[in-house]
Amino acid sequence: MQATAAPPPRRSLKGWAVLAILLIVFSYVFTVLLAAACTVLPYLLMAALPFNINVLFLLIGGVLTSLTILWSLAPRRQVFEAPGPPIERAQSPRLFAELDAIAGALHEPMPEQVYLIPDVNAFVAEHGGAMGFGARRIMALGLPLMRVLSISQFRAVIAHEFGHYYSGDTNLGPWIYRTRLAMYRTLVNLRFKEGTRVPAAVAVIRMLVMTILGGYWKVFLRITFVVSRKQEFRADELACWLAGPQPLIDGLCAIDRAAAAGQSFWQTELSPALQAGYRPPVAEGFALFLNAPHVAQATAAHLATVLNQSKSNMYDTHPPLRLRVAAARTLPSTAIAPDNASSLSLVGNVDALELQLLQSRFPQLRQVALRPVSWEQVGPQIYIPSWRRYLNENRALLAGLTVESLPEAVHNTRAMGSRMPDPKGMLLTHEQRAARAATLLGTAFSLALIDNHWELHAQPGEHYLQRGDAIMRPAQILAGLQSGQLTADTWRAQCISAGIAGLQLDGTGATGCESGSCP
User: Fold this and answer.
1) Closest CA to 99 of 8, 234, 1
2) Strand, helix or coil at 136?
3) Each residue's pLDDT tens digit, 130-140
4) How far apart, in whole angstroms, are the C-alpha atoms of residue 271 and residue 279?
């Protein structure tokens, strides 16, 4: 890590910061004056004209509108909620050594607490105090983020986050955030609930105030988001000065790819295991998921698309990745020895932290004794038993169906789904019922193969069945039959070639297995 020269000066964004502060002050002054006008103008109108019931309603509506605005602007007490479990210095001395080095290079105090979060992200903030004064610094590090970044890339990303401390962004941030929140709260509170009947004069004054405030809010957001994007470029500059441009570029690209797959991993791979009462290793599973061929291909295509985009939305907090990469490439490059080890190796006692992280994200898991399980055992211990239960519940719908009849069955899922009872307390659409029927066909097909001595390979992002050199991917086969890319004749020929012709989908004709009693 480079830290020989003096860090760049802090003043590069001073003008933008002053503009943001002036906007914040003007926002409150403007909104208070607007609230006053809602009362004063109807009062002056009432004083100048003979008594009129509509003007009286206008005055009452103006007073109520003023009170609503002032109540919405009143500061709310911010209750801090830890974003995840804390990472302790005693348990992760190598991690804190890295943080100490970066803080020392920028002459910045360390955050008072570092948290682990479940996102492909890292952030810094300040909480407590009053509007940013007397606040305590915190930092949050994503578990999947650290799993996908090398130590060199991690240094660059953390240097970027410390850059926000260095440039004073976290001091300004609470002011901007609370102002945005107050303006949003004001607009929400000014809206009448659906079905509310009010005098026309009251409705007009509310609509006029909301139009004025809404227009100003858009201007405020656009300008403050411009400031936010400038701050990101500045933090990138500091990261390049400290850790080098290439580690930052590689780290940003790795984050973009991983973030595109994060939600899918939690929903399709981790959640089923947790719901079954098991806890596979989260970070390891995410790495396996990213390396699965179709996931790697999809995330690479996503990154290529993002790198071709240079135009940002006016409400984006971050500049487009392409522009950040281009800006980093223009900065001086220094010879810094790369460290390609996973940055998660800096953290101690990962298993215990993962459990705390899961319990933090899903509080209901605190009452459950999750059983540790390896990803190799997820298939036999979780998937196969749940598939058998699903098959047993719906066996009658599969009577007479064989693997060769899948082409006809996949085009009859709507009718099949209509015969499946909806989950308790739910009323499904026709499309949802058809999707459940398709799931049943895939489950039955997989079990028919398993009961015919095919081996299930179920790793995150890569599920298939294998016997000898032959491989079957039921989900892809069903999708091909549904789309027509795999014809019925071709499929039946494949069944004969693979030796699975005649297998019953209801499990009654499986070789050496009866009525789902196979282990």
Assistant:
1) 1
2) strand
3) 555 667 899 99
4) 9
